[in-house]
Amino acid sequence: xxxxxxxxxxxxxxxxxxxxxxxxxxxxxxxxxxxxxxxxxxxxxxxxxxxxxxxxxxxxxxxxxxxxxxxxxxxxxxxxxxxxxxxxxxxxxxxxxxxxxxxxxxxxxxxxxxxxxxxxxxxxxxxxxxxxxxxxxxxxxxxxxxxxxxxxxxxxxxxxxxxxxxxxxxxxxxxxxxxxxxxxxxxxxxxxxxxxxxxxxxxxxxxxxxxxxxxxxxxxxxxxxxxxxxxxxxxxxxxxxxxxxxxxxxxxxxxxxxxxxxxxxxxxxxxxxxxxxxxxxxxxxxxxxxxxxxxxxxxxxxxxxxxxxxxxxxxxxxxxxxxxxxxxxxxxxxxxxxxxxxxxxxxxxxxxxxxxxxxxxxxxxxxxxxxxxxxxxxxxxxxxxxxxxxxxxxxxxxxxxxxxxxxxxxxxxxxxxxxxxxxxxxxxxxxxxxxxxxxxx
Length: 441
Ligand SMILES: [Zn+2]
Prior knowledge:
This protein is of the alpha/beta class.
């Protein structure tokens, strides 16, 4: 693809285009009749050889928090199970819930976690410095409230966010980050290139796992990326999910659970080369990958694939072990909660992330064992947990009502929460993770 970069338009041009010209395109790509469907071919390599390796039964959509006015209405539930591709080792959900149902309103805001904001700002600044010249274009897929892109706006670069969740893109606009409220597709990528020229850097953090049609995303990257540009992504690492029994990160929004080998299988089908892999201790273990134009993968990436093969990650065995360790964790947690209740000690949930919905529903922990959940997201306060129905209150209630212990459903933010609740801990309150470890900052 020729690098036919036009004169750099000012950001205002992008902002005007977002308001007007892409509206017709957005209308044409909206699937109004979407229903749950079942995958029969691998999302990474296209093979038809998928076998179920884990089932978590049925589950309500993990972010479908319930308004008190709708508590009497039935909740939708969908099957939740993992399939393993025999050809490339890709681990993926069998049932796909329509993204229109899951992503048009999104209740996680990047800016609400200082630790995550700093992590993404580090990524943006590092790669913008390495790869983007003056006036170059940086596009973020799944840009949320614009936190990461806003961290490089003082550089001489143009930024554009793409995120289908309309509520977060409004916040991005308020932050001055031009954002297209749409799914990232090849037609959209071509439109962006036509208006703004090729992108030197495309970033997608915790977004590939949310997208059913990864071929479409790769075609979009191919259409938008400059010849010497890079696509930098982050995804939670399957190896850490298995190692740390992070079964509660399995939910309908997360369609894929990535190892390195299937990522190479995916990108190489689109003339893209996985060049670097780096591990970070966020979200329980995240890999950052750098993709450039080319074929295959680097020697460094090959070493990851060899290690995955030695660990048997593309076999059924680690998933059987995950199921057994998950069941044991549930037994332990329910027994402990029953014991606390018998002694008249109150235990609340801390954080109402999607993984909290999975944990409470899969372990059958209702309001009898855990009566209340608190969360710092104002949009969630006043609503109820999907399935198990706990009311969600503001974290300030922990200080005033002083439950004897809180269970960190948002365990990936454990240190941040422990820091925030120092006074509660000093007053004798206990903070525990779902595997019943005490947390300190
Ligand atoms: Zn495959």
